Amino acid sequence: MQNLYPLKFTPLYHDKIWGGHKLKTALGKDFGDLPNCGESWELSGVTGNISEVSNGFLAGNNLEELIEVYMGDLVGDKVYEKFSVEFPLLIKFIDANDDLSVQVHPNDEMAKERHQAFGKTEMWYVLQADKGSKLQVGFNGPMDKETYLKKMEQKEIMDVLNFVEVEAGDVFFMPAGRVHAIGKGIMVAEIQQTSDITYRIYDYDRKDANGNERELHTELAVDAIDFTYNDSYKTDYTIEKNKRTDVVKCNYFNTGILEFDATIEKDIYGLDSFVIYICVEGEYEISTADYTEKVKMGETILVPASVHQYKLKPLSPNVKVLEVHL
pTM of the full predicted structure? Predict the structure, then answer.
């Protein structure tokens, strides 16, 4: 059997009522004639949207097929034991040309009970933001279930939500239960559990082409919400060039930012997990003993767990990647 190597996948594009064209203009994504492309799923094991390899001798095989064949060699032994052939993470680029609905996701326990699925904890890395653009994260003061329901009933929910003006490089961690929304003019890289369960709380009274408002999930959402108040929701970090900076560590993924202008040698022996690189700036080359692949801004690559040693060589003056593993 031939050795595994860093894998690229064909993006899966999703048209959204709030989508735009930044995925094409800023990231070079070719989403054809979709009028409002809101999401590019870079790496997905979601049923009906399973990513397909685009490079090397495994091109044309999908992610689930690869896990069936390579098992722990691809994802790591512990990961395979826990998730079997289901890939545990979903990687996306999101372009919000309009405000996304205010929403919340259930945790694992609730999602299993209600939907026989995993919950959804996620994080955002802001790739680009128009001047004055804001994310909605959590509440702007102490909150409880009774007050929340009253505000919903009085159509005053926007008055108690927290809004944060953002810029490129900002990081936000969204554990299951935290109310949130991506605002107009923002493009993010999203790392999340493999789950597509969303409870919509508020959608600005928007109507579709047929004059219908989108369904809200008020009753499902209220039990899923974590009403804990934080005075700040942004993740602070300081970059040290040519060295990984940890930004989010949780039970579902471990994400760092690696900014480099010199060749980085990596050895992941003992990690027992795949590693994902999401390129958010510049261009680089990833090479193993017997394989080399170029990666540019807007591209994502999966390093199998059995590929223990590899190099990241910059091809532009500065490169920045998100490095993700379990």
Answer: 0.95
